[in-house]
């Protein structure tokens, strides 16, 4: 499928920068993902705002926000806002994943296997589930360190999408690591949230 052109990127960004119901924003991003294909959705440069919009939609859905929007590109920070009534929460977002993982490459290789008639699902032994779970604290710490290091000139909440799955084998242990993991971020953000497994964990604040 074709990669997005500059006019298409501009069009998507403009639409997502207007107040939208969370379900409408989620549907829009899903349609863009389908049109692009997952390899480019996660691999093309300059489309990170589409993934931010997905996080905005998920955040708004869990928070029962009336509307969400990406912050206009000219403002640069934070990534999105969620509005309920007159209250607006400004949110910077980030993704915590296995170090070095490139999802675009994962989808691209799966597509190549499909073309050659090979299985698209690789064997995933239990030991790998455990190994992924063990990397959660380091993945969260890396994201938080990066966000703190940017020294944002203002206050906003921080949303971390934790994209590490272990099929429930370390559910309780991972949830227990969240409060200590976010502690370094608390002086720098109004609230900290973690989106993991269709659940919004938090908020943590000082």
In words, what does this structure look like?
The longest helix is centred in the N-terminal third of the chain and has 16 residues, at 48-63. 47% of the residues lie in helices and 17% in strands. Strands 1-2-3-4-5-6 form a six-stranded mixed β-sheet, with helices on both faces. It has one domain (6-114, 125-204). A hairpin with a 2-residue loop joins β2 and β3. The chain is an alpha/beta fold. The mean pLDDT is 87. It is built from eight helices and six strands; from the N terminus they run ααααβββαααβαββ.
Q: TL;DR?
A:
With 206 residues, the chain is α/β, with parallel strands linked by helices.
Q: What characteristics describe this protein?
A:
single chain; 8 helices; alpha/beta
SSE topology sketch:
Layout: H1 6-16, H2 22-36, H3 38-43, H4 48-63, E1 67-70, E2 80-84, E3 87-96, H5 103-115, H6 126-134, H7 136-149, E4 157-162, H8 171-182, E5 192-196, E6 199-204
Parallel strand pairs: 3-4, 4-5
Antiparallel strand pairs: 1-2, 2-3, 5-6
